[in-house]
Amino acid sequence: MTHLLDIEKLTRHFGGLAAVSDLTFHVDENEILGIIGPNGAGKTTAINLVSGVIRPSSGHVRVAGEDVTGLMPHVLARKGLVRTFQSTTVYGERTVRENAMRGAYLGMYPGAVAAFLNTARARRLREESVRRVNELLEWLNLADVAHLKAGSLPYGHQKTLGMVISLAAQPRIIMLDEPVAGLSAEEADHVRDTILKIRERGITVVVIDHNMRFMKGLCDRVMVMNQGHELTTGLPLEVLANPLVIEAYLGRGHAAAHRI
Ligand SMILES: Nc1ncnc2c1ncn2[C@@H]1O[C@H](COP(=O)(O)OP(=O)(O)O)[C@@H](O)[C@H]1O
Ligand SMILES: [Mg+2]
């Protein structure tokens, strides 16, 4: 069976270290897959490989059956796969709306961006993008602050803006790396609800986080990574009760173990 996202034996070495090693997993259409694991387990490297930020040493990434291994992030964005921007990539001096508009350019070749801004057809496309971005800002409750500098927003709102940037590229799959790191419990609940709303639109989600309460309330399945490998994958409660998982955390003395 073809899954929306199929990862086969993905491997990436950094010098002598296999940060990700023989990693095989899949994500179904409209699913929310969580990825957990101790620091250094290879989670960020895995989604960087899948989203084209770095190239694999070996292995395959397939989107709806098409081999997209090693393609650049803007090409993958056109195929519907986007790695969500962190708050650090939100331009604090630009307005919320200007930041959000960047997402509309995500799926374009750099040369096309210039054309996009100049020709008549481009103007029409731009108007469509503005409408799309306005609708997204409205939908995720950022319309009232769209004219403010992004840097002046509370951290939780900046996270939501990061998601708007990604959604403006009209993805089929979004991948989020620690979307609630550093947020309060209340802000984390808000981000969880936002991601659930995004899924209701038919978008598939891959999310990494250490906050187990957040992950339990969000994910359909959770994959646990340890030392570049998949340790186990299953329902959130099953996985979190698995002695191997607890050992992987405790064995590395990780603080997140206390939150399982
Ligand atoms: N660009 C890089 N160069 C060298 N080593 C790296 C690089 N990126 C990650 N690593 C190493 O790969 C391993 C996995 O890192 P990472 O994917 O960031 O783990 P996680 O996100 O699970 O904490 C770590 O040992 C890390 O030091
Ligand atoms: Mg990481």
TrEMBL record:
Single annotated GO MF: ATP binding
Q: Which UniProt keywords apply?
A: ATP-binding, Cell inner membrane, Cell membrane, Membrane, Nucleotide-binding, Transport
| Residue ranges occupied by any ABC transporter domain in the UniProt entry | 5-252
What PROSITE patterns does the database record attribute to this sequence?
ABC_TRANSPORTER_2 (PS50893)
**Where on the tree of life does the source sit, at the highest rank?**
Bacteria
- Which cellular component terms (GO) are annotated to the entry? plasma membrane
Coiled-coil zones: none
Cite the CDD domains for this sequence: ABC_Mj1267_LivG_branched
Tell me which InterPro entries the record gives. AAA+_ATPase (IPR003593), ABC_AA/LPS_Transport (IPR051120), ABC_transporter-like_ATP-bd (IPR003439), BCA_ABC_TP_C (IPR032823), P-loop_NTPase (IPR027417)
User: A Pfam family matched by this chain, by name?
Assistant: ABC_tran
Name under which the protein is recorded: Leucine/isoleucine/valine transporter ATP-binding subunit
Q: Which organism is it from?
A: Caballeronia choica
